[in-house]
UniProtKB/TrEMBL annotation:
GO terms for molecular function: flavin adenine dinucleotide binding; FMN binding; oxidoreductase activity. The keyword Transmembrane applies. Its EC number is 1.6.2.4. Pfam families: Flavodoxin_1, NAD_binding_1, PepSY_TM. This is NADPH--hemoprotein reductase. It comes from the Bacteria. InterPro entries: FAD-bd_FR_type, Flavdoxin-like, Flavodoxin/NO_synth, Flavoprot_Pyr_Nucl_cyt_Rdtase, Flavoprotein-like_sf, FNR_nucleotide-bd, OxRdtase_FAD/NAD-bd, PepSY-ass_TM. The keyword Nucleus does not apply.
């Protein structure tokens, strides 16, 4: 399969370094807990922002005859070395406000030392340090290429954090966690590389040193330490360390080190004798240590730990995705010029190719010569009679990566003779442009003068059930006997939710064998009218979809009972309080518009149900007109109450009924023609048309709209985007 350069880089870098990254991540996660454990010790006695150096030096000098050094560590614990009145030397943690000794500094943990060595150098000294630094750099490149892949997938910076449809566990979480961990991982890797380079002395050495003019050092006027301006201006939070003078000779001074500078202070007068700025490399080094290790901050340590745990997940999910894609390889038994059937595939993540391979195998098994290829490899096919295009859609209705050049190739490649073709679109109803690329391919193939054997067939969410339906339609139309084995493709439904039957009417009481069913999800679920309920009557891959009407926070379905209907039979057998397991499929393309000047709803039969829900939701009273096709008054009785309620509260502006058995074969498309002026006015206004019901009715509606446009001398193509459908 063709893959983009970014995906190729992301994958190659990840595969080549995953062992090292795995080791560095596991050790990194353990090390992230070191600062957390340190911080939990009880040695933080004061807010160091509020304690001045002058104050602390004074209390220490008052408390101990000799003070050697004071230090503030990353946890903001104050460490000191002093000699007591009894002549004992004491070093460890002290209270900076009272100079009281709190406890000795514990020996560094052997375990953490071991893990640190493994993390830094894998116990391989310089070679190990180099390898770890190099892998840090590779992980940086992996993060950048990953970020570019997310940008490509989301189509731009603005949508970087936009919602992602959860179609596949590994892919979904790889992207979601990747986005959130990007910044911490970039920080970890950049600082890791910096710290490694530092160990190899890549950065210039600090050659700055203090320069004291000993000739002019004075011992007068004497000031108390607390009054030294140089000490008063320094808060302990800025201090790294202060060395005390070892004697009361005037040439001995205080050496104060802050993060960004160091200075020497006359022990009698408090005058600054010399001051040097810390080199930029030292500041960077300090910052890198803090950012890389999380030292001094529990929150940052936890962020680092979570980001590093995510790296482990990326290794796992990345491998799962790669393995799935590799399963989808193309191998041909017949050449492109010897085959009568050509299957062309457009696939970004390989799942469509799995379906195409299964179809190819079956066609070959039934004695046909088949050539399978990617859409971007479209070429001349000497003996082709029929082309099957199976393609997914990506981005916002765009081609998948291995098909993005197809439309151009199609217009520049001429075949010796025309062929017939069928297009199968693989997509997801969760995207507004459902299977759009498949429709684009279909239109272009027709434009080239090829014969369309079947209209575009769309498959939502890799449904094997739908694919089976298409295979059966196609084999009838093509006069070929095949059946695709389910074993390689039937994916058992996942993440089914429990629903309880709230009410159900009896099909036998209705002249059309139609019944209504109300369901309540066991747990809270997000759904709206127009979404689909997928049920699995046999508990296997076989799926049946029903359009939902949401009324009073309950799922309403209207179902026609078919004699051997798998789904309708199963639902009809349910009784009040029974449970069933199903899932909701978001059908973004068929939601009631949030904003519109006018909405025209067109339904026949049970297709009215989602509209009942949408009318219930139309609290803004958007002018809405319903053209509803049913058999007779009795059929209408099933929905009469809801429709009357909508008419009286203004949610429905006007109802047009087409009762085919009572008004002499009148269908909704006839009513549209009757109201041609109103329909054209609605199109011109940019109003939305929504159709739900049989495909035959939908085709009739489209024909009607085309005729009305023709009557008004405009091209229907420019209004096509106003029509939304959910027909079966
Ligand atoms: C980022 C992204 C964008 C998608 N955009 C669309 C879309 O615009 N229309 C659509 O019908 N399906 C869309 N899909 C769904 C895919 O077309 C669908 O999952 C398909 O089965 C994937 O097949 P493949 O694995 O062969 O590429 C999108 C999927 C992803 C991950």
């Amino acid at each position: 399969m063709t893959i983009s350069i970014w995906r190729y880089s992301h994958l190659t870098l990840a595969i080549s370094s995953f062992v090292f990254i795995l080791l560095a991540s596991v050790t990194g996660i353990i090390l992230a807990f070191e600062p957390i454990l340190e911080q939990s010790q009880p040695y933080k006695m004061a807010d160091l922002e509020e304690v001045s150096l002058g104050e602390t030096v004074t209390v220490f000098k008052d408390a101990y005859p000799e003070v050697i050094e004071l230090e503030v560590d990353a946890n903001e614990f104050v460490l000191a070395s002093v000699i007591t009145e009894e002549g004992e030397s004491l070093s460890g943690y002290f209270n900076p406000k009272t100079a009281v000794f709190l406890g000795e500094k514990p020996e560094p943990s052997k375990f953490f030392q071991f893990v640190t060595n493994l993390h830094r150098s894998l116990f391989l000294k310089s070679t190990g340090r180099f390898l770890v630094g190099f892998c840090s750099f590779i992980l940086f490149l992996i993060s950048i290429s990953g970020a570019v892949l997310v940008l490509q997938r989301q189509r731009g910076f603005k949508k970087f954090f936009a919602k992602i449809v959860n179609e596949n566990f590994s892919q979904y979480w790889h992207v979601v966690l990747g986005r959130w961990s990007l910044i911490p991982i970039i920080i970890i890797t950049v600082t890791g590389v910096y710290l490694s380079l530092e160990k190899f002395n890549v950065f210039p050495e600090d050659k700055t040193s203090h320069n004291v003019d000993y000739e002019s050092i004075a011992a007068m006027p004497i000031l108390a330490e607390n009054d030294f301006p140089a000490f008063q201006g320094v808060k302990l939070s800025e201090l790294s360390s202060v060395e005390f003078p070892f004697s009361d000779v005037v040439e001995d001074y205080y050496t104060v080190k802050l993060e960004d500078r160091a200075f020497l202070v006359n022990q009698f007068t408090g005058e600054i004798l010399s001051e040097v700025q810390s080199p930029f490399t030292a500041i960077l080094s300090n910052l890198s240590i803090q950012l890389h290790t999380g030292k001094g901050s529990i929150v940052w340590s936890l962020i680092l730990a979570v980001a590093t745990i995510n790296i482990l997940f990326f290794i796992y999910s990345g491998f799962v995705m790669t393995f799935k894609r590799r399963q989808a390889r193309i191998k041909n038994k017949f050449t492109r010029n010897s085959s009568t059937y050509v299957i062309l595939v457009g696939s970004e993540n390989g799942s469509t190719l799995v379906f195409a391979n299964a179809l190819k195998e079956q066609l070959i098994a039934s004695g046909h010569s088949v050539f399978l290829s990617e859409l971007n490899k479209y070429a001349t096919y000497k003996n082709v009679e029929h082309v099957i295009v199976m393609t997914s859609t990506y981005g916002e209705g765009e081609a998948p990566v291995n098909a993005n050049n197809f439309l151009k190739l199609l217009s520049t490649t001429s075949q010796q003779k025309n062929y017939s073709f069928s297009v199968v679109g693989f997509g997801s109803l969760a995207y507004p442009e459902f299977c759009k690329f498949a429709f684009d391919v279909d239109a272009s193939l027709q434009q080239q003068g090829n014969h369309q054997l079947l209209p575009v067939f769309t498959i939502n969410d890799k449904s094997f059930s739908s694919f089976e339906q298409w295979v059966s339609l196609w084999s009838n139309a093509a006069g070929v006997t095949i059946a695709v084995p389910s074993s390689s493709l039937d994916v058992k439904p996942k993440q089914l939710k429990e629903f309880k039957v709230v009410s159900i009417t009896a099909a036998k009481d209705n002249p059309d064998d139609t019944f209504k069913l109300a369901l309540k999800p066991h747990k809270r679920l997000q759904y709206t009218s127009g979404d689909l309920l997928a049920i699995y009557p046999k508990g296997d891959y076989q799926e049946r979809l029903y359009s939902i009407g949401k009324l009073q926070d309950t799922i309403h379905l209207s179902v026609k009972l078919h004699e051997h209907g798998l789904g309708s039979g199963f639902l009809n057998a349910l009784r009040k309080d029974d449970s069933l397991y199903a899932r909701i499929i978001e059908n973004k393309n068929f939601h009631f518009p949030k904003k519109s000047d006018r909405v025209v709803m067109i339904s026949n039969g049970t297709g009215i149900l989602p509209f009942l829900g949408m009318l219930d939701q139309n609290t803004k009273n958007i002018p809405t007109y319903l053209y509803c096709g049913l058999r007779n008054q009795q059929s209408f009785a099933l929905y009469e109450n809801e429709l009357n309620a909508s008419l009286s509260n203004g949610h429905l502006t006007k109802l047009h009924l087409a009762l085919s058995q009572e008004q002499g074969k009148v269908y909704v498309q006839d009513l549209l023609m009757r109201d041609a002026d109103f329909i054209f006015e609605t199109l011109s206004l940019g109003g939305i048309f929504m159709a739900c019901g049989s495909l035959k009715m939908y085709q009739g509606v489209l024909e009607g709209l085309k005729t009305i446009c023709k009557m008004n001398k405009v091209d229907f193509e420019s209004f096509k985007h106003l029509v939304r459908s959910d027909c079966y």
